[in-house]
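Board work, copied verbatim: Transcriptional regulator, AraC family
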Amino acid sequence: MNIAEKPIAAIQGRRASTGDGVHLIANHYKKGVRLDTHMHREAQLVYAAKGTMQVTTPRGRWLVPPDRAVWVPARLPHAIDVLADIDMRTLYFDLAWLKREQQDPDLTEEFVVRVSPLLHETILALFDGRNDSDRTTLLIRLAMHELHQAEDSATFIPLPQDPRCRRAASIVLDDPTALHEIETLARQVGTSARTLSRLFTSETQLSFKSWCQRARIAAAIERLSTDTNVSIKQVAGQLGYASLPAFSHAFRQVTGRTPTEFVQKD
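↓ predict structure ↓
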């Protein structure tokens, strides 16, 4: 396990320090790049100003399209897969800074946030090259304020820890478009349908059916955010939904919004 002594020290990119316990790094990554499992001594807010990435932690898999950002606590193992070319903007926070600003009690677990227009512009402003410490301090505090207002778990797929349940989850994630019967999956992983159903509920807080639906909707979000030429109707058909209204209903159940509302930035 790689522990970076400095923010993302092993990765080349433009790096700057605010001089007050917060570091800024800008990177561009091509589709297909994988940043293998690693951790940092600092906490971080990772934002793809352009493109889509997937962040995997021991707790689950987070899909991060352009209007999302992910909070990663210090020393949390995580990997990043680039699903579409990304312009990554990352803010690293020393633990002493978080404690001093009384932020640390609320930021001990990873989560994805929906990036409002204000948070988007705030993050970009931090990287515009202006050397104004007072302005930078205000922008960072504004970003942290917005961070607390915007938690969004719609693109999170919790991953079970039991080996049998984990194998079943991997089968579904390898092909979320297929109709997966729990009886068939149970035989494949060497357990009963009843046990597998119980494990999914206890380890993901979702029923097997709801978990599979979340995996399919996450696949839909990935396709809508990485392929600008695909339509919502086409994605619905690719995922096996009988109609666009059926897809929209399932999408709203998971995300709270319609597919059209989801892909549009506020």
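The chain has two domains: 2-149, 156-263.
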